[in-house]
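Pinned message: reference record for DUF2264 domain-containing protein
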Amino acid sequence: MTNPLAGNPLRTRADLQEAVRDLCTPLAPAFSPGGARVRLGSTGASFDDTAAELEGFARPLWGLAPLAAGGGHFDGWETYRRGLESGSDPGGPEFWGDPVDRDQRLVEMAAIGFALALVPEQVWEPLARPARDNLVRWLSQINQRGTPDNNWLFFRVLVNLGLARIGAAHDPTATGEALDRLESFSLGDGWYSDGPTTQRDYYIPFAMHFYGLIYATLAPGDVERAARFRERAALFARDFAHWFTRDGAAVPYGRSLTYRFAQGAFWGALAFADVEALPWGVLKGLALRHLRWWSRRPIFQPGSTLSIGYGYPNLIMAEGYNSPGSPYWALKFFLPLALPGDHAFWQAEEAALPELPQVHAMPQAGMVIIRDRGGRHVTALAGGTQWAEWGPRHAAEKYAKFAYSSAFAFSVPAGGHGLAQAAADNMLALSDDGVHYRVRERSVEAAADGDALRSLWRPMPGVEVETWLLPSPPWHLRVHRLRCERPVDSAEGGFAVGRDGIEPLETAGAAWAVGPSGGSGLLDLPGASSDARDGRVILTEPNTNLINPGTVLPTLVARHDPGEHWLACAVLADPDGDAWRSAWAQPPVLPAWVAERATGTR
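Predicted structure (C-alpha cells):
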C-alpha cells in the first residue's frame, strides 16, 4: 500500500493515533542496525549524510511522543531507545557526531528534547547510566553552539526543557536569553518575524507559535511569558484562518512546503496549550479537514514513506536543506494526541469556519486575502514586501509572485530558456533578448493602502516597474507602469491549470484555459493599457507546478519599445470550471484613477 492513510477517515482521536503508527511503521526497514540512523533515499542535502540520517530518526518523534503521552501504543520504542544509545555514543559506529555552529544536528536535537520533556518514560528511564550520560553530553552542546538568529533559538529552549524534565544539568540562562530574543521578534497582532527578516510564511505558525505554545505548556513556572505566548497565538489564529478553504486546503506560500500538513499543526498546538482561540469545534474542523485534504494527495513513495515535494514527489521545488527525512516534520501536526480523550478539543463536534469576508487585509504579511463566497478557493495577493535574504532556491517564486492560490498553487522554473521553462505564473516576466526572462524578486518600495498593494521593482538594469494589485472578487486586478530604456518583451501569467482535458483560448487581449481542474484566465482592460497584448496558452515544462505535474499557463504577451507603458488586466481563477465561466462573463471595471494616470489626465 503506497498511501498509508488510505481508508482512514481521520475524524477521531483513535483515527489520528492510527495515522501516526501507519506513517511511522514504513520507516522500520530503513533503520540502521543500531537504530540511530534512518536512510530513506539517496538524494543529497546541504548537510552531511549523517545529519540527514539523524533527521530521519528524530523527526518522527514529533508525532510519536504525543502518541505515547496520550496513551497510544507504538511497537517501535525499543528501536528508538537503542538509537538514542548508539547515536549519542562518541565511540560507537553510529555516533551522530558533535555539532558545530549552525549545524543541522542542532535542529534535530529539538525533537529529542521534546520527547524527553513529554515522555521520559519511553526515551529516558529505560536507558542505562552510560547511555544517559552520553545523551545528556551530546544534547548539552546546543548551549555552546551558535544558531541562526531566528526560530532555531527555540531548539535550545526545547532541549533545555527536556534536560530539566529528566533532572539533568541544563542552562536556564541560555534558555532565558533565547526566549527574550525570540519575543523581540513579535510584530503585534499576533505576528512574529522569523528573526530580523521580512519573511512571513508558515514558519510563523508551525515554528514560532508552535514551539512557543509547547513552552507555555511544559514550563508552567514561567507564567507571564506563557501568557504572552498564548495571547499572541490567539490573535494570530484570527488571521491564519483566512489561509484555509472549507475543504481543508491551505495557500502554499514561502519555503519549506515539503513539510506539508505541518501547515495545520498550529491548530492542534492551540489545543495542546488549552487556547480556545476559536470555538473548539472550529479548531478541530480546521485541523482535521486539513489532514484529510493531504491524505488524498499522492505524496508517498512506493514504500509508503513521505516524499520530498508538495502535491506530489518533486525535487524541483525543494530547498537545498530537504533531505529524504525532512518531510517528517509534518508529524508536528499530531501534537494534540498528547491531550486526554476527554479534552474539549476531542469532545467537540467538527464545525465549519464561520463565514469570513471576501477580502481581508493582512498588513503584517503585506498580503490581501480574497475568498470566494463558498470558501472553496482562497487567493493571497502578495505586495512584494517579503524577501528571503539568505536566498533559498526559487525565492522569487515562493515570496514575490503577485498571487498565490489554494487550488492552483504556484510554479517554479525548470530552466532559463523561454517561457515554457520559466513557468512564470502570476508574474510579469520581462526579457531583453526574447529568451531569458526576469521577474519581480524583491521590491525597491512596497506599501499597502487599505486593500490595494503597491510595489516598485527593477528586474534588470534600465527597466523599472511599478505594480498595483487590487482585489475585485472573484477577480483581482493588476496595473503596471513599465519604464524601459531599451526594447523588452513582456509575458504576464495567470494561474497554471492542469493540462488534461483543457479548453484553451488565445485571442487579442485575452487568454484562458478551462478543464477538469478548473479555469484560469487573464483579460486586458480597456482604458489604460498603452500597448496591445496577445493571449497565449503556454504548455509549461512538466513538474514546475506544486500541485499539478502537467499544466498550461494563460499568458498575455507584448513587445515594448523604449519609454513608458501602462498595462492593466483582470485575472480570474476558480477550481470549478462552471463557476469560472459564469464569472468570466462579468469582468470587473478598472478604477478611474488607473485610466487617468495612464492617459496623463491625473
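Pinned by admin. Summary line: The longest strand covers residues 563-574.
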